[in-house]
Design goal:
With 281 residues, the chain is an alpha+beta fold. Helices cover 20% and strands 25% of the residues.
């Protein structure tokens, strides 16, 4: 029987992001065995397996869906980090045609989260529509690179970087994602209702910059692409040229985590994410 707190990166024949909440051990198993960090088995992880209500090539959240501001619970461990500028760090070599992923120093809340890479970037098979979470899917990509990290609390973060045939195709995919993520509350509440749960999901865009955006949604997640239970999920999107990248992680109430981001820190991270694409293009 699958445990509720584990996340797999991908099922080879199914174009679904590492949103499957299985154990961190399974999350890491998608990477080469000789590249695994040594870490105890996770008791509570944040990430998913293909869920009911996840988008497909023929189903998307309705455009223009309302996105009321999320009610952010205070962190039990202390205030969210301030938006101080991130120091420039040396970037590792890119894999294939995709830019290198962020370094651990560039990841959100690194001082507290203690992110460590899970192996090295891996190429994934693309499909006409590759799901990212319960709300959004990337359409028309020609390449897909994925990098995972595990926090000290054994919760994962994932960066998915997609390449496209042309900059126009990448920008079109970005605009579709913007619409889907802006309408995320509707998709999440639909998923909750189908599971017989109280539809309590709220979603908001927390930061915007040219060709980039940040969102967070808070909800009592249902099994599928997210770990079940109360959580705040963070999504960061940036595009440059023919490349689009998405970074995601969750703060789990069950792991003693409150909301680790502010609008200011999200704006700072978008600058870092967009800058990583420009530096390696």
């Amino acid at each position: 029987m699958l445990t509720p707190h584990r996340r797999i990166l991908l099922l080879a024949a199914v174009p679904v992001i590492a949103a499957a909440t299985l154990a961190t051990a399974e999350f890491t198993s998608a990477f080469a065995a000789d590249e695994q960090p040594t870490a105890p088995r996770a008791a509570a992880s944040a990430v998913p397996s293909p869920a009911a209500g996840s988008p497909t090539a023929t189903t998307k959240p309705a455009e223009g869906a309302g996105t009321p501001a999320a009610t952010v619970a205070p962190s039990p461990a202390g205030p969210a980090p301030s938006a101080t500028a991130r120091p420039k760090t040396a970037r590792p070599a890119a894999t294939g045609k995709a830019p290198a992923p962020l370094t651990v120093q560039e990841l959100p809340n690194q001082a507290k989260a203690g992110w460590k890479p899970i192996g090295s970037p891996k190429s994934r098979d693309v499909a006409p529509s590759s799901s990212l979470n319960e709300c959004a899917a990337v359409e028309g990509a020609t390449g897909w690179q994925q990098q995972g990290w595990a926090s000290a609390a054994k919760t994962p973060a994932i960066q998915d970087t997609f390449t496209f045939a042309t900059p126009t195709d990448a920008d079109r995919a970005r605009q579709v994602l913007n619409t889907q993520l802006d309408g995320c509350q509707t998709a999440l509440r639909d998923a909750q209702t189908k599971q017989g749960r109280t539809p309590d999901a709220t979603s908001t865009r927390t930061a915007t910059s040219p060709a980039a955006g940040a969102w967070q949604y808070q909800w009592t997640a249902v099994p599928g692409m997210s770990a079940p239970g109360a959580q705040t999920h963070h999504v960061y999107l940036a595009a440059d040229g023919n490349v689009l990248t998405v970074l995601q992680y969750s703060d789990l109430t069950s792991a003693g985590q409150g909301n680790s981001a502010t609008p200011a820190s999200d704006a700072d991270l978008l600058t870092t994410l967009a800058g990583s694409l420009a530096l390696t293009r």
